[in-house]
Amino acid sequence: MNALQRARESAAAARARYRAGEVAPTAGQAPGLTQANLISLPREWAYDFLLFAQRNPQACPILDVTEPGSHQTVLAEQADLRTDIPLYRVWRDGQLVDEVQDASPLWAQQGDLVSFLIGCSFTFEADLLEAGIDVRHISQGCNVPMYRSNRQCRPAGRLQGEMVVSMRPIPASRVSEAVKITARYPAVHGAPVHIGEPRLLGIEDIARPDFGDAVAVHEGEIPVFWACGVTPQAVVMASRVPFAITHAPGHMFITDVPDSHYHV
Amino acid sequence: MNALQRARESAAAARARYRAGEVAPTAGQAPGLTQANLISLPREWAYDFLLFAQRNPQACPILDVTEPGSHQTVLAEQADLRTDIPLYRVWRDGQLVDEVQDASPLWAQQGDLVSFLIGCSFTFEADLLEAGIDVRHISQGCNVPMYRSNRQCRPAGRLQGEMVVSMRPIPASRVSEAVKITARYPAVHGAPVHIGEPRLLGIEDIARPDFGDAVAVHEGEIPVFWACGVTPQAVVMASRVPFAITHAPGHMFITDVPDSHYHV
Hints:
homodimer; PSTPO5379-like; PSTPO5379-like fold; 7-stranded antiparallel sheet; 25% helix
């Protein structure tokens, strides 16, 4: 068995555990395979969302879109999108109303959900680590800090909202390298959207993120900001979408696709 | 006035000439600015097409999608999509029925056309030339040779069809460089989809392209194939779409966006 086959076995095993009821963050599972954000919407909202993603590709890089009502994706053909994510969030009229471990009953009620699988920065973080660049939230063992920015996404139909950004502190001497490494992954957020000067992004206090956890920014480090896959959840809230299912933060969908597939 | 402003003036001047009635291929106009393929479809077909493009990004890299009925694009805010392309093709039930210089009357009849602007390989050809790699159809002064391939696109809704590929002969010693250069432009078809062995792509005779013109392949050169922006026209035909407007081959939409914007 080669390394890719072994990684895929480990991905299938992780998905089976989540399907059986395990709830845990997916970071570090099946290394080398891409993890994805999920948002499932009624068919009637699918065009607006797909257009929103096309117009905001750094925040919403789409890896796959399912057929209406289908729980299957080409990213992992044996997987079941209703059950194979450890934890789901349920949204009604833009409000978070529930977290569930099995989304099958909701899928059955809605009938025509279209699911969007969206790139996640876990993919390029592996390359940053390999280049010897510390990824602070990993070394601190917490979630990446995320902030609502003052940058409006380009609206599409009924969908609008601000871009959510994630932040990683990078030594000034290595910022350029971090840009180059992440730029080559346009399908998973790509290059930073802003480097230094958090205030110009509308961030008043870097120590108080809107989502995730604060991390230390050391002397000589620059806060570097990437478009974040939480943006769709912010858009669901801001646009008062009547119904949506998403993954819970950090509880991603593990695909069978190697990270290298998205390297330009 | 800087170089970008001069290029944009030259783009605006070219669009004004086409609007006034000039019909000519756009190659070489406003160098440094991106040119785009156009396909305009009734609103009722927009989701299928946007999904088709998402599923086949190498053949259909979307640069912009307009609001229904709008003739404006963020790619060139002063331009009018109904008139600023030198020559349009009109399709009914999958058949080419007309070529027109002014599409305004058709736009008025249809009311809700959604326009898709799609990346074009002109963008990366400039970089190949700069690297000293001969682009044969440019040096021969003809159209790029294009072939229907045996590779089926991933279908979406009512849309299906085969991938059309363009071919450029590249010296064996420079194929690797041509891959690297074009891979960094995923928004304009990106890296080749096939290198050498035309028969495995279903191409029986490289000297008889399905669209465009044959070019010489010299001793020591490898035929290199890229996904081609003519694919949407092949899909319109294969799927018998009831109505569509496209640009005529080689008669592109000149944007105000610098090529470098699409460089990863």
